[in-house]
From TrEMBL, chains A, B:
One Pfam short name: TetR_C_11
DNA-binding region location: 37-56
Organism of this sequence: Streptomyces chattanoogensis
Keyword Transcription recorded: yes
Keywords, alphabetical: DNA-binding, Transcription, Transcription regulation
GO MF, one annotated term: transcription cis-regulatory region binding
Keyword DNA-binding attached: yes
PROSITE patterns per record: HTH_TETR_2
Chain ranges of the HTH tetR-type domain: 14-74
Name of the molecule in the record: TetR family transcriptional regulator
InterPro entries assigned: Homeodomain-like_sf, HTH-type_TetR-like_transc_reg, HTH_TetR, Tet_transcr_reg_TetR-rel_C_sf, TetR_C
DNA sequence: GCATTAAGACGATACGTCTCGCCTTACCCG
DNA sequence: CGGGTAAGGCGAGACGTATCGTCTTAATGC
């Protein structure tokens, strides 16, 4: 089934790979995703086009790998658990807001989210590699809170996390509002209001 | 400041305009947004390319107008108010789920959401013309419920609506889950749990 | 030595502009 | 009013540029 005579990865140039990532990330910030071209990346990276086509199927795939490579350095540690659920969620979401407000982060992430909307396979990879890990730490934190009795027993934790993260993402992606600390706090408080056990 | 000698709208061909809309909508469903081209639209519509370039700045703008023209026929009536808030929200969100699960609806809406992520001006128009009107009816319904004492007084209704609609949109856009009636019901119940007044 | 590499030629599309007559429309004048 | 005319939109498609994805070549480096 080995389609298309897979190239020999052991002989791959790490130098070129990194140069391609750097070029892709800087170019997407400068010219935007629509005007990002494989030829442009190859040229800035000092790399032959074939080197890109050999290893990636699309510019979106290049960008996804480039972005992931940059993000993987942050190893996800799980959310803090100080015992104060609201405070923990707020502090992490505030940090995430700072990240999403950072121009360097914005261009590639927006581009990937957009490309994913029209490309089912890409969206699955995007979700699995970038969104899901970030979501899971919230799920775990909420589950811990649930076991501690801070969150009502019957609640679907997964949906609760969506209620927290989706408004945040949506606001940012569609530019329907600013991601301020105030907003984050309001959101956390309102979500938690619905999660607390009733007496 | 009239840039570029604006064309005379009074002499515009309604026939061509409609043909362009039809062609754009059917083509985006057939070949997808990435492979949708102005030339393709012009060709299928039996229209000169210049006729498209004269009236729209981009294929995204064409699609937005085409889609909006189709949707505008649904005049938004506001949400039902039977007195049972949960039931009202569930019935409308279920209908929306059906709509979002409809293939005819999916391709253009996905394409526009994606294009908006990378194009700030387009996203503002997209939000203002398609999302905001739909959001407002929820805001109004919740405000009515708030006045009726069904929703606690201090709550930011706008954020509450985001908690309801964003998880729904996000799930659909990123394909992180199915939009089932069960899901809709769970979401409505969990959101409302946080909105109810405490004794 | 052999597969990957940088460089770029290549044909195929699609871009956005332009030019060409044709045709419709707005509006003027009788 | 209502016919005539000029302006401008119209369909068609040629044009030069840009990028696509493939292919060829010679150099490189493991």
């Amino acid at each position: 089934m080995a389609n298309k005579a897979a190239p020999d990865a052991s002989r791959r140039s790490e130098r070129s790979r990194r140069a391609i990532f750097d070029a892709a990330l800087s170019l997407v910030g400068e010219v935007g995703y629509d005007k990002l071209t494989i030829e442009g990346i190859a040229s800035r990276a000092g790399v032959g086009k074939q080197t890109i086509y050999r290893w990636w199927p699309s510019k979106a795939a290049v960008l996804l790998d480039a972005f992931t490579a940059g993000v993987d350095e942050y190893s996800t540690q799980g959310l803090p658990d100080t015992g104060d659920l609201a405070a923990d969620l707020k502090s992490v979401l505030r940090a995430t807001a700072d990240e999403f407000n950072d121009p360097v982060f914005q261009a590639p992430y927006r581009a990937l989210a957009a490309a994913g909307a029209n490309d089912e396979e890409l969206s699955r990879t995007f979700v699995a590699r970038l969104m899901e890990p970030g979501t899971l730490v919230y799920v775990e934190r909420l589950r811990a809170a649930q076991e501690a009795g801070e969150v009502a027993a019957g609640i679907d934790v997964r949906v609760a996390v969506e209620m927290l993260l989706s408004p945040f993402s949506q606001r940012w992606l569609m530019r329907t509002g600013e991601l301020t600390y105030d907003y984050v706090d309001t959101l956390v408080d309102l979500v938690l209001r619905g999660l607390r056990p009733r007496d």
